[in-house]
Amino acid sequence: MIAALFVDPAGHYAGIPGIDLWGETRDARRYAGPHPVVAHPPCKRWGRMAAGGTAAPGSAIPGDDNGCFAAALKAVRTWGGVLEHPADSLA
User: What are the residues whose beta carbons fall under 8 Å from the beta carbon of 49, sequence distance 6 or more?
Assistant: First the structure.
């Protein structure tokens, strides 16, 4: 069994045997094991446009993702697995 965290329950992992889906309604920040994870925490507040971009500079706080990245990193460190984020992530 593998836990897929911060994923769309109707997305790429849906219907794959052995995958425990943790979409928005399950709140992946609460994952407490025991299976290894593949974590896809939201990257919107960690990228180049994290502060709101050129259209609305300063309208958002970089890294303000309600603890999603921290929870994903903790799950990977605790249970094993991978965390996927863009190459230029500030996380």
Answer: none
